[in-house]
Specification:
The complex is a heterodimer of chains A (about 350) and B (about 350). Chain A is an alpha/beta fold. In chain A, about 40% of the residues lie in helices and about 15% in strands. In chain A, the strands form 5 sheets. Chain A has a 5-stranded parallel sheet. In chain A, strands 12, 13, 14, 15 and 16 form a 5-stranded mixed sheet that branches. The chains are: A alpha/beta (about 350), B mainly alpha (about 350). Chains A and B meet through helix 10 of A and helix 4 and helix 8 of B.
């Protein structure tokens, strides 16, 4: 009980921005992990007799999180890369075998003899996993940890990107960090990381509050199959929806799908104040290129009539911040800055 | 002499029927421009069109005008051109191959277009220099060339080209599946899927200037050979004995049908059943004489596809269905009816 009060107090301390002091006291309550460790993950119970020594990580976000927790020496294979690794991990990442840029085969994963597999997306390893099923890995006694961001409150049996029943929130990312730091007995580092992210979230909120950024609307455009067809835009329950909701911004797209396709005529009618376009290294669709998206918005005779285009309130955001990853925090900061700029032009 | 022809009752009747048909088509196009995700009154549509064609200067909301002129009208005209071209291609192929089941897709054109498009998007062929449409066009022409060569090797009979078409379609469909299976993400599969089933959301005026001339020239070329097509229905030997230069006419008409289909598929994706079903519907009204059958097929095909596109836009609120889903949902039962009618497999 007493510990909880202290943590509550810490939240208040964090809220006023003096988070370094908070970190120190928070960390005191992080204790060493006791094995065997059992924890719930995506509706399953995982048991670890000891901290895993050989991890295969499928999904850039899961991989970078392991690096961030200082566990790079335990990672024996990676796959599913959406872009270049974060600059700070370039050297260490180069020493770790990349099994595939996208989804690897089942045998290449188990061939690394992992005592744990971490996966960012359930469609790689899950009930119908493309790489393998949970049962297949269970037969080889390999526990599979799935990022909560892809399974908590989410139905992945619907095909495509799956359907979120509950909206995404950063709590799912924090859950993932807490779980992994516990599994590997590095809870202190995990707690530091979570506290750092929470403080950044809070600072972004305060930035928006300072400029009274209320009643602003926005559209998040990820990509499109072709430059002028109906684009993939952010729905009401994914990461962009969370970014918008905590900053008090209204999402003009009213759909529960994570990335629905919406018609341009519908979008133009909603006339968002800010348009956020995805920046990525992938070049599969022409619209993966943010400059082409910008060019389209400014040259199409209909889209160029939107207020956001006329007044230049188009924001370029890293695409991985638009997906439920720890980089969502960067997205929060980017949008907060954009709101500040928007208010300055009003 | 000419005066006699112009004042003859048959000529006047034909002219008035043709005029009525064009009026009907224009009316349907106007309705299509007023129906969509957001409702715009027909009056606004007419004012907008008048402003553009005759500089009428009616006051119209700029966004309404943009949506009508740049999105919906161009889209409706392309839909009409595609419907007409696919239906005429189907009628021509059914006559040439003396097989009621013949349609443009039988020649592997659609399968090849899919492979071409998928190669661009997923394999990244052309390194961003080639558009999806160009990839589809190259794939369509390649598949058609492959099937034709196969048929020539197999003995040139009408049965040979149908079997070669089946082999070609299967092979290119397998290639498409292979590439899609290797694809990286659910998002890409969805982007491709949308395209494979037909999608007019990206259509703009430049597509009109490609689709409309191709459809018109294709129709004129085929109409020019209407008598020869009538002769072909009795077989190549009979056609030859009636003085038709069989090989030349055969080559011209097959090439016309293939080019029309390849161009249309490259603009809007794979739209099934139009080429197969519409000629049968037209035959129901005017019989088998190609002088009447071809223009009527073109008209019904145009109306059918414009209507199918409107349905695809409004049937699910807030979402656009691939047009291929609509044409197949309507086309498949219609085709079943034709099958059960019994006369199809003469």
């Amino acid at each position: 009980m007493k510990g909880r009060k202290v943590i509550e107090l810490n939240k208040k301390v964090l809220a006023v921005g003096v988070f370094a002091a908070g970190l120190a006291s928070f960390a005191q309550y992080a204790s060493a992990t006791e094995y065997p460790l059992t924890l719930e993950n995506c509706g399953r119970t995982l048991t670890f007799d000891q901290a895993p020594n050989r991890v295969v990580s499928l999904g850039q976000s899961s991989t970078e999180l392991l690096y961030l927790l200082g566990l790079a020496d335990r990672v024996v294979g990676t796959a599913v890369w959406l872009g270049p690794v974060q600059e700070q991990f370039r050297d260490v990442n180069a020493t770790i075998p990349r099994l595939a840029d996208n989804d690897p085969s089942f045998e290449s994963v188990v061939g690394q003899k992992p005592d744990m597999v971490a996966t960012q997306f359930q469609w790689h390893i899950g009930p119908n996993g493309k790489v393998g099923t949970i049962d297949q890995f269970a037969e080889l006694s390999i526990p599979v940890y799935t990022a909560p961001a892809d399974c908590v409150g989410k139905d992945n049996t619907t095909g495509g990107d799956g359907t979120r029943i509950d909206a995404f929130s950063m709590d799912q990312i924090y859950q993932g960090i807490a779980d992994l730091s516990k599994i590997f007995d590095v809870e202190e580092r995990g707690a530091d990381l979570i506290a750092d992210f929470k403080a950044r979230e809070q600072a972004a909120r305060e930035k928006v509050a300072a400029v009274n950024g209320k009643g602003i609307s926005a559209l998040f455009w990820f990509s499109s199959a072709e430059i002028d067809v109906d684009p993939f835009v952010a729905g009401q329950k994914g990461a962009p929806a969370y970014v918008m909701s905590i900053l008090g911004v209204e999402n003009v797209i009213d759909s529960d799908d994570e990335w629905p396709t919406a018609g341009w005529e519908t979008i133009v009618r909603t006339n968002p104040d800010i348009i956020v376009i995805g920046k990525m290294d992938r070049r599969r669709f022409p619209a993966d290129d943010w400059e082409l998206k910008m060019q389209f918005l400014k040259s199409d005779p209909v889209t160029r009539q939107m207020n956001a285009v006329k007044s230049g309130n188009i924001v370029v955001m890293d695409a991985q911040s638009m997906n439920p990853t720890m980089r969502t925090i960067d997205g929060i900061e980017t949008l907060a800055k954009a709101i500040e700029a928007f208010e300055a032009t009003q | 002499m000419i005066g006699n022809i112009i004042s003859s009752p048959v000529f006047i009747k034909r002219i008035s029927v043709a005029f009525a048909a064009l009026m009907l088509l224009a009316a349907v196009l106007a309705v299509a421009a007023s129906v969509g995700e957001t409702a715009i009154p027909v009056g606004t549509v007419i004012n907008t069109i008048a402003n553009h064609l005759w500089d009428a200067g009616y006051p119209v909301d700029a966004i309404d005008a943009g949506i009508i002129w740049n999105y919906r009208l161009s889209r409706a005209i392309v839909a009409a051109s595609c419907g007409a071209a696919l239906a005429v291609s189907g009628a021509v192929l059914q006559a040439l191959l003396r097989n009621s089941l013949a349609d443009p897709y039988l020649l592997g054109i659609s399968a090849g277009a899919s492979t071409g498009a998928v190669s661009i998007v997923i394999l990244g062929l052309g390194a961003g220099m080639l558009s999806l449409s160009l990839g589809a066009f190259i794939g369509a022409v390649a598949a058609f060339a492959f099937v034709t060569l196969l048929a020539l090797q197999a003995g040139r009979g009408t049965g040979a080209i149908i079997l070669a078409g089946i082999a070609g379609s299967q092979m290119f469909n397998a290639l498409t599946s292979f590439i899609v299976t290797k694809s990286a993400s659910a998002e890409q599969a969805r982007g491709i899927m949308f395209w494979l089933l037909g999608n007019l959301s990206g259509v703009r005026w430049p597509d009109v200037w490609l689709a409309l001339p191709v459809a018109l020239v294709g129709l004129v070329v085929c109409l020019w050979h209407a008598r020869a097509l009538d002769a072909f229905t009795f077989g190549r030997e009979s056609a030859a004995s009636l003085g038709v230069p069989v090989r030349r006419v055969y080559a011209i008409l097959i090439a016309a049908a293939a080019m029309m289909t390849a161009v249309m598929v490259s603009i809007v994706g794979s739209i099934g059943f139009v080429g197969l079903v519409i000629p049968h519907a037209a035959r129901f009204f005017v019989g088998t004489r190609h002088g009447l059958l071809l223009p009527l097929s073109a008209l019904i095909g145009a109306l059918f596809l414009v209507c199918a596109d409107v349905i695809s836009r409004v049937i699910v609120p807030g979402q656009v269905l691939p047009i291929g889903v609509i044409t197949a949902l309507v086309g498949a039962p219609a085709f079943a009816l034709i099958l059960c009618h019994g006369r199809i497999l003469r």
